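Notes to self after the Tuesday call (sharing in case useful).
The group wants a holo model before anyone commits to mutagenesis around the pocket. I volunteered. Ligand is adenosine-5'-diphosphate. Logging inputs and output together so the record is complete.
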Amino acid sequence: MVHISTVRHEMAYLNKIGKRFVAANDRFEVHHALIAALQDLYSFSACSILLKGEPFELSIIPRYPPSAPFLQSIITRITRAANVIGFPEVTAEEMAVTAYLDAPDEFAHGEAQAITRGDEVKDFLNVPLTIEDRIIGMLSLFDEREGTFDTDLLQLTTMIADYAAIALENVRLRERENTLWKAAEMERRRLELIISSMAEGLLITNTQGAITFSNPSARQILAQAQVEFKPDVPLKVLAEQQDANWLSELARLVQHALGGKTMIRQELIAGVKGEAVPLTLSVSAAPLDDPGQKPEAPIGVVTVLNDITSSKQIEKLKDDFVSVASHELRTPLTAIKGYTQHLMRRVERRLRENKKSGETPEVEPPESYDLRNLSIIQSQTEHLERLVNDLLDHSRVQWGQLELSFSTFKLADVLAERIPLAQATADLHTISLDMQVQDSKITADRKRVSQVVGNILDNAIKFSPQGGEVTVRLTEQDDCYVISIIDQGIGISPEYFDHIFERFYRVRNTASSQYSGIGLGLYVAKAIIEGHGGRIWLARNKDMGSTFFFTLPRVPVTKEPNQA
Ligand code: ADP
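Result:
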């Protein structure tokens, strides 16, 4: 045992052990440095280090193999002392389960001296482990003999404990840092794998709009669009250099995202001119914020490119088929309609002749039976014709070929014509006209306007199977007429308001066979109204049903009137 009498000696001693603590790389090396330092002061059987934390840690470092009862006695002492340093309530059992026996290597090699000579702790010393007045744990020394721990050396022991506390805290921080680094590295690798294997293209651009990162799919898409990718060149410049319109569109989206706006599923045509279905991308862009900045300022933009060309190809195939099929259906349909009308006229003539001849048959004459059947054929043919026309109009809208033929007429006349036609198909409904304008002169496509009114009226009847009032109202607002068609039917939830104007869209509860239809009427109606420079929308009625509105400018604003 070294007896240190002078301050200089003490300093030299502390310097020596301090270096050992500093050199310690892990907690075991700290334990060894601690044992070595304490051994110079006392002859003891074991020491322990209890560290606060969630979970707490307890290491018992014996100098020679302890007997089981002695170990138990150590744990009992630690448990009791733990309460003094403000340790949360922990039982001796929990301490025993947590305890880690950091036995020197010699134990394992059988080089250790005999096991402890007694079974009980007879003397002990507890020193708090502190860092800047914060107790982080407790150092305890144990011996099975009485009077081992000299209180004269308490100050020096406390200094050693402080060294140990700092060394342990450093080790702990390093371990935590390592764990965090490993977790971050794992996450980075996982993300890298996901990003490089995802089918969507991913681009990251900086605040100048230049690409700083791209995944393999993005590079493939750029190559397909015949764009030579150059790092550090802003997309705008790249667009000009390579005469790629879609890249300027992309640059615009990225610029919006830099302004803090997230852009979702914007369609960009990136294909080369002349292709039947060009390379089409669905693009989403979101700002990449710097979490360190308050308020967060974007340091770039993350853009996801989705190649939707194949779904566009399928869509085109479908559209082509619909267009061809509806064209082909029209010819036989016209013939059926013509021959039915011809037959009806003949039968009607025969009935008239029978009447003239004064014969009053007792049973219903076969002609009147035929006439009834023929009128069923006629009305079904008209229904089929409407469907085919909707399909043809749909194709025209798709290809931008819905042509309008303008003439000047009175809107009131169109409404007055349409209402009786609709009324003839609706026994349970009362359709009325509410004219709130004096003059209803307009320049528009008469047939198309009539078609829209007819379509909305047909829906108003179809979707109010219980019957009720249907009102057609004509008002005016600025340079427009406003037509509203109010029904008392099943109504539409607001979440479907925009969707019902999409092609083939039918509200799920009305898509059943109870209501026939293919979901094209409103799609075509919207195209017609917008072709006139008007607007179409709907609202839910207070009590029941819906109101469809559309506006028509008195004089068309989008196209030069093509006077018929
Ligand atoms: P279709 O009537 O052939 O289904 P439309 O394009 O005319 O196609 O209408 C689209 C959908 O909008 C309809 O299927 C229906 O779900 C809903 N809808 C249209 N008009 C009304 C209405 N007056 N009341 C309730 N639902 C309606």
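Two things stood out.
Residues 455, 459-460, 463, 487, 489-490, 492, 500, 505-507, 510, 517-523, 546 surround adenosine-5'-diphosphate (CB under 6 Å).
The first strand starts at residue 46 and ends at 51.
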